[in-house]
Amino acid sequence: MGRNLGLVVALVLLCLVGIITAGDTFATGANVLTILRLAAVIGVVSIGMTFVITGGGIDLSVGAMVALASVWATTLATQQMAADFHWIFMVSTALLVGSACGLVNGLLVAYGKIVPFIATLAMLAGARGLAEIISDRRTQIISVNPFVDFFGGSLIGVPVLVWLFLIVAALGWVVLNRTTFGRRTFAVGGNAEAARLAGIKVQRHTVALYVLAGLCCGIAAVMLMARTTTGSSTHGQLYELDAIAAVVIGGTLLSGGRGTIVGTVFGVLIFTTLNNVFTLNNLSISAQSVAKGLIIVIAVLLQQRLAARGSTP
Amino acid sequence: MSARSARFLKTATLAGLTSLALIACTSNTPEAKKTDGNATQAAAGSGSNDAPGQKVKIGFSAPAADHGWMGAITKATQAEAKKYSDIELIVAEGTNDVNLQISQVETFINQKVDAIVLLPFDGAALTPVAIKAMEAGITVVNVDREFDSTFAARTTILGDNKGMGISAGTYVCQEMKGKKDAVIAEIAGIDSLPLTQARSQGFKEALADCGLKVNNRVAAEFTVESGEKAAANLLQAAPKIDAIWNHDDDQGVGVMAAIKNSGRKEFFVVGGAGSANVMRDIKAGNTLLKATVIYPSTQGADGVRLARLLVQKKALGDLVEVEVPRLVQLYAPVVTKDNVDQYLPTAFES
Amino acid sequence: MANDELLMMSGIVKEFPGVRALDGVDLEVRRGEVHCLLGQNGAGKSTLIRVLTGAHQPDAGQIVVNGNEERLNSPTDAINLGIAAIYQELDLVPELSVAENVFLGHEPSRFGLTRRHETATRARELLKGLGHGEIPPGRPVGMLSAAGQQIVSMARALSRDAELIVMDEPSAVLDPEEVGNLFRVIRGLTERGVAVVYISHRLEEIREIGDRVTVLKDGATVATGLDARQTPTAELIRLMTGRSIEYVFPKRQDLPAAAETVLEVANLSRPREFADISFTVRAGEIVGLAGLVGSGRSEILETVYGARRAASGFVKVKGVELKPGRVQAAVKAGVGLAPEERKSQALILDEAVYKNITVSTMTRFARGGFLNGHAERVAAAELTRALDVRPAGIDHPVRNLSGGNQQKVVLARWLLRDCRVLLLDEPTRGVDVGARSEIYALIRKLAANGVAIVLVSSEVEEVLGLADRVVVMREGRAVHIGPAQEIDEHRVLDLVMEGSAVS
Description:
The complex is a heterotrimer of chains A (313), B (350) and C (503).
Chain A: H1 5-26, H2 29-54, H3 62-73, H4 76-84, H5 88-110, H6 116-135, E1 140-141, H7 145-152, E2 154-155, E3 158-159, H8 160-178, H9 180-190, H10 192-197, H11 202-228, E4 230-231, H12 239-250, H13 261-280, H14 285-310
Antiparallel strand pairs in A: 1-4, 2-3
Helix pairs in contact in A: 1-13, 2-8, 2-9, 2-11, 2-12, 2-13, 3-5, 3-6, 3-11, 4-5, 5-6, 5-11, 7-11, 8-9, 9-11, 12-13, 12-14
Chain B: H1 2-18, H2 22-25, H3 31-35, E1 56-61, H4 68-82, E2 87-91, H5 98-110, E3 115-118, H6 123-135, E4 139-143, E5 155-158, H7 161-176, E6 184-188, H8 194-209, E7 214-219, H9 224-237, E8 243-246, H10 249-262, E9 268-273, H11 276-284, E10 289-294, H12 299-311, E11 327-329, E12 334-336, H13 340-343
Parallel strand pairs in B: 1-2, 1-3, 3-4, 4-5, 5-11, 6-7, 6-8, 8-9, 9-10
Antiparallel strand pairs in B: 10-12
Helix pairs in contact in B: 4-12, 5-6, 7-8, 9-10
Chain C: E1 5-16, E2 19-30, E3 34-38, H1 45-52, E4 60-65, E5 68-69, H2 75-80, E6 83-86, H3 98-102, E7 109-110, E8 113-114, H4 116-129, H5 146-159, E9 164-168, H6 176-191, E10 195-199, H7 203-209, E11 212-217, E12 220-227, H8 233-241, E13 261-270, E14 274-282, E15 286-290, H9 297-304, E16 312-317, E17 320-321, H10 327-332, E18 335-338, H11 342-346, H12 353-358, E19 366-367, E20 370-371, H13 373-386, H14 403-416, E21 421-425, H15 433-448, E22 452-457, H16 460-466, E23 469-474, E24 477-483, H17 489-497
Parallel strand pairs in C: 3-10, 3-11, 6-9, 9-10, 15-22, 15-23, 18-21, 21-22
Antiparallel strand pairs in C: 1-2, 1-4, 4-5, 7-8, 11-12, 13-14, 13-16, 16-17, 19-20, 23-24
Helix pairs in contact in C: 13-14, 14-15
Protein name (chain B): Ribose transport system substrate-binding protein
InterPro entries (chain B): Peripla_BP_I, SBP_2_dom
Family (chain B): Belongs to the bacterial solute-binding protein 2 family.
């Protein structure tokens, strides 16, 4: 994992800053869990985004899909079903809605030949609009307590949300690096025409990538629902930008063909830790945005240097 | 849902009972404020509340400052905290992502702050973490957008949305002086929000009192652009208008632009929220803006002061009651040329 | 004659991490000469050109231009010294007009406003100077032929008062006729005193246009100042490869009479591309398609492969008709394609060699979707050894391999799949002379193993030398089908040109 060295260094530096400036609070178990809980939701979205970007696409609709999935899963009817039977109804509704949106994205991109930027931009507007219509812009409050208790709780001292993030990240790593699906993702993102002529079903694979991203958004929606005990059309605002930023500073090539789950996880952790350190130190609101921007630029510059050194032109 | 609306009803009644015109009641105005002009009506009494006491560490979190009013909330809060040597205020990044805001509150809990002043992006979504903070022994002061559990905050400070409508409607009635066929128009904010519905309801009730009604109503989205669009549509639809109430002074910038473009002058405009811009226009008297109703942008600042009192176990100066009230609802006064000087110092810059 | 000397490069060293791309290169170019640079792919020609044009900075060595030692820190420095390059992948902006491309970066302007009229006039003058006054300055470059675009590139170099123009395989994208035209332009340039550094794999071109030759091998100059016309071919090949190669094409083998027909193409047509194409290929047979660029050869291959959908006609593999327009159907039936544009159509350049080899056979190394990386690497390593892919090792990105070795990787991909039909589109494009014979031998060996092969090449001698039977194409139609031994190069060229209006 030599190529992630820069990210490790960045994260360690951030942690050092945290320990030096707010050691008594920063280096506590509770605070680490706070960071991880924040990272969990956006992390799951970013894993899905890593697949899409590695496969040569982009998904601007992740935040909107989170919102729509959360709203749909918390409508009164779904909640009633969940209350009568099991909270699994709510969870599967969220996952289905996310996957279905992803399917639409994928079909538009792969078969409708709409560039991903535009197709998912349309989904961004459409899904959030639909979420607003379904919820009438009102926050849906979850009354199914077992659901909140389970997902909001902890297993062996670690919040269920964090477990979910770890599981999704681990699965993502295995799929991307150890399966034919992952290999095809690199091939399609690296050179779609070559992949097609090598006999890979490029269109079908592209659809699968977007469905995967949608599914991740569904999972993230479930996590956010547990964390907030609500579903809302305002959930997931600007997640697309947070996710893309995390994926890109992690080392995934925005043009596709190169992607790393480990890098994405680090990218997410760097941003959430940054947020935590800034809040702990009571630093100015705007300085934080500036720092985020700087980190993105520095990380990408560093990567380009490393990439240039790694391959002969 | 039904449980929730019942709860809403309960808190609404509670709000009615404890409604206070806080502006008239703050005896604990610090020295600094007194000297910068007639900031508040009068600093009645000089309670010992302002004397430095036990150190208080307060965490503050609010939504992103994408609206002039919201920006003013944080600014006013920070300014207020600076006046007290015993307050240490920690301000978290303004955000519209509930996930991040929850994390900020969790961080405050980890930091073992004494109190948290929270203007939640979404009251319901922040309720679980607010309860967690209360359970950790932290005093939570809820500002503007209500939690959906009474256990989530020690004290809640609210503006008075319905009161805004009532004030605006009453002012329009006065100005119409019994003119029965007056054409009244209303430019609302985001229509599906309960706060907008409350404002419109109050306006309607107040107008009905003098036999008027809203003849034309359009809705904008609290942004300049949407205000311009909505107003342009309204002016097209109604060839003659006597008075317009616009819910929000930020979108009002767009509303006034549309009016200016139309060249119409037969009516007057009442604003909402109370931005400094609008108040300056009212003071100058050379526009169609004759009045605005205030939705205080100092709620966060009030929150910080109440949080300090709560932690230091002090009472609210002019109340006989020894505890800080559970709910404080702020008054929505009408600002006109006659009293504008009094409100201008606390108005927000949009 | 000392002031004849325009450029002196000596002892140039350039290192990349893990690779010493240039290891002491000397090059000396005189005014008004065509100096040919020979060397196998990977010998360092491209890197040398990048150093010369300021794109790379050397780690050691001296560059002297017009008697002054210079440091070229950027392409701008090189341009200011009168050094320009015309690359294989032309660096023109297709959407901009000819004139705008010629003056890109130094537009005639006043107060920041471009002077369109002056731009057009001066571009027309430059094009006329190159003998191509017929190219309209206002036309978007994307609408010009490859040859036309080259002329525009040259006009651009001249607009910068270039004294030295580097041409990297300019003939690769040209028809024989266009090559003749290019040579006329080059002669016109040298008469004006401009020096040309000419890179090509075609020895016959070097003999025709070159004055002197410098040979590179493994990043170093092995011979310089050779006479381009007199030096024997065998000597040049020996210098390039370090061994001497006598003949290039492997011996044909007689087909067993029982060899079954594997591929059957019948009445295949696509409007405006080709019409009514029928031919068969038996197991172990190589069928060559000869014809000019644009005669529909590549389109036929891609249609057989399902990458294009036929308007009519059918393709059968072992008697089973393929679903038209479906690559997967062809691949499943055992058809493989080594496309013309290796880099953009066949390879995932930044991926490792072994991943490029196994990309079409992945499922074989997977159980339940999980890849067995070890088995995969073993299979790939075996093949790279068998095909002598260099550098050895299966973890390099394919990008770092030379053209010939990249082609071997593509062939290895289909070998691994046990293809019954292999479609080869320009298999030796960009492959140097030494490696070509290896590729030829490999293709013949595949045929000997019973693969049916369809070969497309612009080089008639390659088709005639390698194929058993030849299909000659003209303007989308097959004008002759017959055994390769019964026809010669002249006859093929006659057939190809016959009746064509171009002259």
